[in-house]
Amino acid sequence: MCGIVGYVGTKNCVPILLSGLKRLEYRGYDSAGVAVINIDKSKIDIVKTKGRLTVLEEKLNQNPIEGFVGIGHTRWATHGEPSDENSHPHVSQNGKIAIVHNGIIENYLKLKEFLIKKGYTFASDTDTEVVAHLIEYYYDGDILDAFIKTLEKIQGSYALGVLCLDRPDMILAARKDSPLIVGLGQDENFIASDIPAILEYTRDTYILEENEIAIVTRDKVEIVNTEKEPVKKEVFHVTWDVSSAEKGGYEHFMIKEIMEQPKAIRDTLTGRLPDSGFEVNLDGIKITKEDLQKLNKIFIVACGTAYHAGIVGKHVIEKLTRIPVEVDIASEFRYRDPIVDDNTLTIVISQSGETIDTLVAMREAKARGSRTLGIVNVVGSSIAREVDDCLYTWAGPEIAVASTKAYTTQLICLYLIALDFATKLGTISYEEFANIRDEIKRLPEKVEYVLTHKENIQKYASEHFNAKDIFYLGRGLDFAVAMEGSLKLKEISYIHSEAYAAGELKHGTIALIEDGTFVIALATQEKLFEKMVSNIKEVKSRGAVVLSVAQEGNTEIENVSDHVLYIPRTLDILAPVLTVVPLQLFAYYTAVQRGCDVDKPRNLAKSVTVE
């Protein structure tokens, strides 16, 4: 998962490439580089380095380069360790072709052996360098032909940007299973992995489809297929502002995005849940009562945080519709020969809409006859385009690697889907529907209330940030949220933590509790409250220090806990939206106390577009 940007125009491209890479650094940050056709068009200047983008900037300040056509890259390593040599861009043996790549070339070893036999030498350990040499191998004066022949040979996923010294006015770009867009300007055009990279310069874009090739010059953009036939594209006009992709005065993107959750929830609900009536508006999704009646199972498939949202979704959909729901990790689903047919609905969840395991799992389900429904945040993303039905979360750009507002808006979409299905099937009364509907609409203000008490959570984080192990306990929906809370802490603070179903304590896990062990106990489910109180007593009796989260009014929990955080009262089924917020804040403030790079945790990247 890497960031790509490219520019063709009348200005010095280097500052523009660096500006774009800064907005794409969340996609990868172990190395960065640029390739620029110099002003006299005599060579391609390449500057690249291991490390953050600031290291590249320092190099360019010491040895400036200039040109009107260039490509840039920020890398998250998949093949070859982070190093100067493995950094992108990569160049062909004759120096005439430079490329940047996001994805994985699965057959690169076979291609590398072929090229070595043809006399090519390799300067890196990457799969990407194969592409640069292969284009040179096929090049006989027509760079587009050579590019197409190369695309026919490589297997795997890619978004590619290509410079050729013999065509110093042009960038070629293509994609397969990795996102790539083209930005349309005046006397200048762009390529990028993601919209924020170019939003400072243009709001008009083409979103490339699978196996489309963009021929980008300063005056025009042509889109063709691999037969060189023209492809007609509609312009996608971006409506959100560049400032929404910047920190807005907050210290980190993560805390900014946590604080944006009330708005994100309101936006995701807008127009979808009328104040009256017995219906839900799912943006034109036409899943009928008859479609639902023939279902024998619903799969929810996702990765990471989205998978945890799916576990909540299972509880909610089963409770309201009585349709069996199975939740699966996408990387497991796609390889285990799942029992899926035309009586199955597969719901896939992905913030970026580009998560490779989720994308391939969706395709697998679709190939077996399943109807597919996507919950994604990025308009025009691969999953959004390929599913049969798509429901967008209107969370806005999420830059921090640790997902927060995407998770809460995914929950909202799952509630909407469950309510829509239940009304169509008649498994919910109007009174119950209206009760849930009205309470969902109150969630934004209740999240705001939790956020106004963030200093209390910051205090607890300051007291426990040196913990070696932290355990999260919960039952039912609280266990689902405990899994997400534990993940948040692990990924940004690097503290070992685990989430356990509290009823499993006696079956082995209580052996981990000793004097001083820090435990976060979730007790927001009214029907399970007394059971959770008993579980808290169990860990307290073995020396644990307990921070509990409960709904307001359940003050009995203070008798068995060292600290208590209260969330506003709500329906049990909706409590996850509120419960997760203090857990997000706790993870954030703990990571800050430990001096961690909150927005860019080690070994992680925002959008997992490779296996």
UniProtKB/TrEMBL annotation:
Specify the SIS domain's residue ranges. 288-427, 460-601
Q: Which UniProt keywords apply?
A: Aminotransferase, Cytoplasm, Glutamine amidotransferase, Repeat, Transferase
Q: Has the keyword Repeat been applied to this entry?
A: yes
All residue ranges annotated as the Glutamine amidotransferase type-2 domain in the record: 2-219
Q: Could you tell me the superkingdom of the organism this chain comes from?
A: Bacteria
GO biological process assignments: carbohydrate metabolic process; fructose 6-phosphate metabolic process; protein N-linked glycosylation; UDP-N-acetylglucosamine metabolic process
Under what name is this protein listed? Glutamine--fructose-6-phosphate aminotransferase [isomerizing]
- What does the organism's lineage look like at the top? Bacteria, Bacillati, Bacillota, Bacillota incertae sedis, Caldicellulosiruptorales
Q: Which gene encodes it?
A: glmS
